[in-house]
Amino acid sequence: MDGQLPAEDWKIGVDIGGTFMDFCALEARSGRIASLKVLTTPDDPGAELRTGLDLLAEREGLDASAVSRFVHGTTVGINTIIQRKGAKLAMFTNAGFEDVIELARLRMPDMYSLFCQRPDPLVTRDMIFGLPVRMRADGRRSDAPEGAVAEAVTRAKAAGAEGIIVALLHSWRDSAQEAEIRKQIEALAPELFVFASSEVWPVIREYERTSTAILNGYVHPRVSGYLEALEARLSTQGVPARAMLTKSNGGVMTAGEGRRDCVSMLLSGTASGVIGAAWLARQAGESRILTLDIGGTSADFALIIDGEVQFGSDELVGEFPLHIPSVSVSSIGIGGGSIASVDAHGVLRVGPESAGSVPGPACYGRGGIRATVTDAMAVCGWLGHSEMAYGQLDMQVDLAREVVGALAAQLGRGVEETAQAILDIAVSEMFVEVEKLSSRAGVDLRDFALMPFGGGGPMLGAFLARELGMPRVMAPRRPGVVSALGGLVADLKGDFIRTVFADLDAARLPLLQEQFRALSEEGRAWLEAQGHDGAIELKLSADMRYAGQSYEIEVALAPDWLSDLDRITGAFHATHRRIYDFDDPEGRIEMVNLRLSAIGAGPKPDLAELAQVEAGDSREVQVHIGGWRPVPLHSRAALAPGATFDGPAIVAQEDTTFAIPAGARVRVDGHLNIHLQFED
């Protein structure tokens, strides 16, 4: 109607971590962004969602009925694996190949440790049943005699199996045999869930394919139950939008899809944080970023190179490799809630045990009795000058001094000295992990800016950057909810693969074109099933290697190259040379897999730059930096574009506290990002 104001259109991104559930809400018509952090409720998972939506309605005027997009990142899958609280699985495989999981790749997690042990498999050896079936590499097959599957099902049920994984040799070439056995199992035991390896991730290597299917099945009951409860809570809250989930590959999918494709969301929270950071970096004109996401239990690192997020297909989930495409993230068990302790040898250690949200750090006043990194920050004076977590926490520094003092007594040191030692250890642990990451990637971190986010990132990020010799730090406007923002702006993204496994020559080009058409149809159908009706982007790549090499590299291709052998081989040689500083133009090339990513663009709000104005006032507080000294305390809400000041200083805001060391020059840009430049 003429003159009527347009209806609201809210889009919400939510990310749940070990201590907080983060909310980032965009009112699309006005461009207004609201954010919030709510303490998690481990005893009633999902209750934080109701609390957060109610608070957003109360504080920001959110209308639940006007929510058109709801994207959720969750740790329920990865926590199930880390805590080993997943389903009891049976596995059906070929007779004679029951030891695939035990053998794995015959590699130890730490080859330099005499005491290193491989993790116990998620499917124990007594739960693996061999079937007298065979699919040969050329596609010929022999099927199980009548009654063989029924006998295996009976044995699996008697052993207490809750679900069954079917993983047979060469199902990448033809999935029919696995599919037929799966149907037999479903008919014989409808109470059991069944996954076939070829439906989860149909790659050529049997260990990678099998282990990926096992991870999917192991978390399935808990993930499916969680998502069912999530959808019910949204319905109760009056939210009409379909629940979407962030994926390990940095995209999103529907919650309905996530109930079966559980493995795709194992790294959802860490991935969406990197996606959010990349979007913020592009807004600020930064192209080379090291991200630092510190929550209550861990610190996660990732590289953004030339504005692009880096991907891998061998990330670790707990102790197990994940072989599907994922945002490349390195993690270490150091977070704001990481507990400090003195070991039997009198050595101070930090992490990986965390206080979580219950009871949390002692300074939260929620019953914590062990010193954490956050308590050490409070003792040193960096925290405790304002409310935290959007008014939900009132820091109690006296409790922090009490628990850090207990450690100090064990060490024979002063309280502040012990607190600083806790912080130094935390930074040094992260330093080692980042050095390994930069060495693997072959980059010089002096060419990068550090972007700290998460509740703990800005607390320690600038100190880590200084130790790494990184000259610049960029802290976004809302560091505490970057992962939630990442889910909000993420694209729909599905990954699909076909194993080709053939020499690359002109005779193979028709096969590649045929496989690309099949992948394209699968990708388009997937996007349509997700409810996407807009523009579609198809990204093609291939896993290739020189004949005789054991492993392949991923090479980006364009679809029109599939009719041009020289373009494909040239791309492979160039990629191999970039990675290994070597290529063999005369070498025989093998094409192993053809990959396709189907992408439907998500919302991309345009953050207009604000005009520069005078900075607001600040006050002084005492911080222990080699002795107590006064430093300025700035309110983030009072820092306007164009504001400048020098460190040491503190910037306090609703979702985090930014600790700025000495030697840093600070500037606020037009998007309200804080930029630190360290003096030479």
Automatic annotation (TrEMBL):
InterPro entries: ACX-like_C, ATPase_NBD, Hydant_A_N, Hydantoinase_A, Oxoprolinase-like. Residues 11-186 form the Hydantoinase/oxoprolinase N-terminal domain. Residues 209-493 form the Hydantoinase A/oxoprolinase domain. It comes from Salipiger mangrovisoli. Residues 511-677 form the Acetophenone carboxylase-like C-terminal domain. It holds the Pfam family Hydantoinase_A. This is Hydantoinase/oxoprolinase family protein.
